[in-house]
Specification:
Length: 343
Amino acid sequence: MDLIYKMAIGLVAGFAITFVLLKFLPGEKIILGHDRGRKFAQGSEINIGKPTGVGFYFILVFLVLSSVICFFFNPVSSEKGIFESGNAVSGLAFGLLAVLAEMVTGWLDDRSKNPWNEYVKGALDVIVSLIGAYVCVHFFGTDVYIALTGSYIEFNPVLFYILAFILFIVSINATNATDGIDGLSGTLSVLAVFTTFLLAFIAGSLPDFNAVYITVIFVPVMLAYLLFNFNPSKMLMGDAGSRSLGFLIAFFAIYCKIPFIYLIIGLPFLCDGGISILKITVGRLTKKKIILFKNITTPLHDELRKNRNFSVKRVWLVLVLAAGMIDFLYVVICKLLRMLGAV
């Protein structure tokens, strides 16, 4: 009953507090910036002037409620010290602090009069990702559950650290690049976190009840935001939202011991925003001698809007349905394989 009570608090409070904050946007003139438009983004001119950086509000709500329920209402006695290796509770706390750091750096850019240099933002992402990777290795260990085989694999700590760092960088930038269509990045984030939790629950790799609380808080918080961000949107999450969500998605997958699930839950982000990052990176490294996807406008949602004449709502529907089907099929396949393995 105690578990249900805490879940109910997280669900109701997460939605209600986020909804009220976004409805009235307290301190808007001081806290938020306003969208400047994106030079090469299809249809971005309609967002110019909208409040941006509202990720400041909903990420704070998520972090505060998660901290209260996971660490205050749910004290965990442990023989391990706060900084001792293997203390998963401390690892979760430091991971949430890293989400906060990613949110703050994005928020400062959102509210600045002139956009930050992308190399500065990239450097900050690298710093947070390096710290995040260390937290994961030190506190959670390097054993990884492979859902398709139903077994654990122990990784070399150095290799795990490198892969975790890469995962954070990819997830941050892919999620950020996907945030160009009303409701898209937020909806895909909800699907990603919920699918991660669902598969970890089925597989039995959930580290503790804190993973349940995080999911139950995150989903209603994001749904409250999406009420204001579905087309036509009234506000935008900005880098404060998209960058911190990218970090959180990757961190939660590692926390649940199934980081390779990002190849599934992150596929929509990689196909939409990821190819844009890859195209730009390769072009710059080769001084535009190699241009990938020459005949495709990136991100993919711009291709659908500009060249395929999709409406914003249709783009959202196509990409979300595709993501939902991929997630559903993967979970079903993993469940079937687990059942067959138990026979």
